[in-house]
Amino acid sequence: MTEEQTSTEQTAPVQPEQAPAESTQPESAQPEAQSQPESAQPEAVPAEAPKKPRARKQSTAKKTRTIELTLTVTGTADGEWQADLMHAGKRIVQALPVAAAAVSKAAAELHQDISNTIESVLNEARQQHEAKLAELEAEVERVRKALAELES
What we know:
This protein is of the alpha+beta class. The chain has a domain at 69-151. The chain contains three helices and three strands. The protein has a three-stranded antiparallel beta sheet. Strand 1 (69-75) and strand 2 form a beta hairpin. Residues 119-146 form a coiled coil. Residues 1-67 are annotated as: Disordered.
């Protein structure tokens, strides 16, 4: 065998294998690709046609915008009251002093249940203050007696 024959034999088997493989794949891929969209499109069109989006009925209910305000009223054992106001997570008012009478009046304006609860807290605070006042008055009386003894 000559060099030409050897090179031809080596390239000849390689070329027919590659050429038919290359030509077979694109040809077979192209008809499948073309047949799939054609068959998919007719099926998709009838399937989509009955599924039309329905128009939503508009609600007859009145749409109201809600506003959230948080009012926190706190009291101390000394009878001092303060208010904090928050709107949308932002503190608007902080530690505003409020009179106990104003707290009672505001609670009465809101609701009876709220008023009853706050009044019971206020009554308890009144009783504590009256007890403290009685102690202080008794101490003042003792100091007056002690002062009177020293003057005599």
